[in-house]
Amino acid sequence: MSNHSRYFRLKPEMLSGKWSLDEPLDNQGHEIEDWKEFTSGRPTRVSGPLTIPIDEPGRRLDYSTAGAGMTPVVHVRVATIFAELAPNDVQLIPVNIQDYPGEYLILVATRLVRCIDDEASEAVMYWKPEDGRPDKLGKYRSVYGMRIDPMKVGEVKVFRPWGWTGVLIVSEDIKTAMECASVTGAEFEAV
User: By CB count within 10 A, which of 28, 29, 144, 184 is most buried?
Assistant: First the structure.
């Protein structure tokens, strides 16, 4: 039994007066072609530094998400926590944000784990043939009150659940380290 038995969904805290970040841009100033590039649960071929425009100015945070793709953006001190505690599970891509060059990185979870516990979750729905989306057949259409089976996770500390990759999950030691570092903008939900 692994000692990382508790896991948490890491999500942006809904705070008023905080900055809002736009889609990441490549060094030519173009949006990254596939907006799921950083949230698919696999390594990205995109290398930095990228640029992230500030959509709405406000208080900057240590943990934010950028654009419609909800790409995780972390301050360098948060990136250090991930690099130290989960070096095999993340990719960190430097980004320049106006007025804060060299201070932020995109956090890519490079592991995809098939671990959602359908029974323990509040409600799960799958794509069916009658939905007319053959590309999504058999994948999750929605997951409410998600719970995972920690036994299926193994030693992975940062990952996205298979079939429901919009969610970023971290182990308890990462949550604790982020709380000890008083990271702003992050909220944790037990899964």
Answer: 184
pLDDT of residue 4 exceeding 50, the answer is no
Reply yes or no on whether the pLDDT at 71 is more than 60: yes
3-state secondary structure of 125: strand
Residue 66 token pair: 């950028």
Q: Is the peptide bond before 49 cis (omega within 30 degrees of 0)?
A: yes
Residue 82 DSSP SS3: helix
β-pairing verdict for 71-75 and 100-109: antiparallel
Token code pair at residue 43: 């390594």
Q: DSSP letter string over 80-93?
A: HHHHHH-TTTEEEE
Output the six-digit token pair for 81: 């926590």
Q: What number of residues does the chain have?
A: 191
- The residue written with tokens 């889609």 in the block is 23
Structure tokens belonging to residue 118: 């359908």
Residue 2 pLDDT > 70, yes or no?
no
For 22-44, write each residue's pLDDT tens digit. 999 998 889 888 878 899 999 99
- Give the pair of three-digit tokens for residue 107: 């956090």
Coil, strand or helix: which one is 126?
strand
What are residue 187's phi and psi, to 5 degrees? -135, 145
